[in-house]
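just leaving the lab so this will be short. below you get a single protein, a line of residues and a line of whole numbers that encode the local backbone shape. id like you to explain what the token line says about the fold, in plain words if possible. thanks a lot i owe you, the record is right below:

…
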Amino acid sequence: MNIQPIAMPDTIEKPVHCSDTEWEQRVKLAYCYHLVDFFGWTETIFNHISARVPGSDGHYLVNPFGLNYTEVTPLNLLKVDLEGHKVQESHYEANPAGFALHSAVHGARDDIHCMLHTHTVPVSAVVQKKRGFSHHDFYGAQLYGRVAYHEFEGITLFADEKSRMLDNMGDKHILVLRNHGIAVGESSIEKAIFLLWTVQRAAENQCAAGALGGEDVEIETSISQKCASLTEKLIRESGFANEFFTAMVRKMKDERSLPF
């Protein structure tokens, strides 16, 4: 199946100062915010999704604080530096709680161009447990060996926590924020949201199974390792994530009216 790239919206015009590559990233990130709301993963006006500005030196895009995810558009996304300072004029401000995590990762991990942070009920429940994520269901098995853990230090506002988060994250792309939520990062917006979807499904399954009586059927470690390796290879070497993202945007557009 030949999946066509996401079309640029024709309801708003690209600003003259914005490059084609930045505009494309803005459109995808705005769609990503709307998808997170579409999936029911928002935390009202809180939490963040960020994406690097292609070709820039340490600049990334993030949501204006105070807007619902459904109000985010390619135009109102903020462009900030690694200190959270706006590098492009906007009457909106950003939520400082996002900078410790997002700026730390964007400043240290060249392989991560998009970061998503959520704390849905299933995810928050799983990360509160000492066990963390189980690898004994279809989605949990795909996360085997791919999850890092960071102990809760309160609201992530302070710069001194950055180094500890990065140390705990290592080379992983999934960071459990204990007693808090999840952060995932990937080399593209499409790959990042597909990874978050996998994490969310694993958390939902784990919570549902935990609520049932009876003994779990456990998956052998070798099988979980195989599932995780295969999933990573599919995402990295195929257009699988792009097809997922494009399909979800089409579905969302069929069911909702977007402001762009």
About this structure: The chain has a mean pLDDT of 93. The radius of gyration is 18 Å. Strands lie at 49-52, 60-62, 78-80, 114-118, 147-150, 174-177, 181-186.
